[in-house]
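Example 3.2
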Amino acid sequence: MKRHTHKQLCQGTSHEENGNWYCRQVQRITYENIGASGQYNEVVSMDQQTGDCEFAVRNVSGPLAPFNEPLSLHFRGPLNLKQVAVYMLDSSTSGHKQQQENTGTSTPAQFVRTGYYNAAQQKAEGVVFLGNYGGQGSGKWTPKFGNTLSYLKADGTGGASEPTLLKDTTISSSHEVALLTNETCDASCGYVQPGSVAYKGFPGPSRIFLLELSMPHFITTTTPFPSNQADAPAIWLLNARIPYTGQYSCNCWASGCGEIDVLEVLAAGGDKAVSTVHHGSGNRADSDPNYFARPVDVDQPVRVAVVFDAVQGEVSVQVLGQGRGEYEHSKGNR
């Protein structure tokens, strides 16, 4: 899966902290050989009276499968989000690019910015913020499945009745925010829990997510999620079919439909962020033993790139350091 074995990566550096094992601090982690023919169990029905979930086998194949399916982007506080830019292959070059993917060779291709958020400018293009707050202004709450997706309050702490832009703020400890495209769901999204707010995920297979953020230490006295997540921020990507049905209830996650933990602080108050890929048969977890330094300074946010490369069959996470200015509208391929 990786360029080096676990033993090589950890030689002389492996150490334990609060029950978690780490190796060395790095700036980049690459997961190789992503994508294979397989299947997972997708939700096709949810019984609101009994709480029963009905599943059907969904076959997947192709470059980066199952991560060639649309993805949703998620954040857990404490996290101060400054910018998000999402890039897809330019339609004028994507046909040529697909031809290269089939032959296994790579030539330069142009990526265009299809989604963007800037906290300081309070600007958003092609994206919508949602949260698991169904029943608060939008979405739905049921005794059997809990909260569906809803629109998000500007401060990220609850639901809203209409699309709202996340303000320039630190998402509170343990609160979660989801980002999707601003295209409402159709049949391509698969089954959506009745009453849920639902927008399409970011399509693939090749795409780039550029983030600018910090993860300051911050603890609240009241949290809607388990206390062991207090002051344990995270960024992750899910197969978008997971939040459509129930991020923490009835979904395809356990059968391997796909999750990528970009930066996840495992221990409350910790200063190390790890990365893990969950996918495939048995929902195996391919975690890298190395870690990224948690960017705690709100005044010095770092930029992070998550690159899905269908040609190479790779997904990489890279901390780019500090930057200036707005993310550009187009980018060359790596």
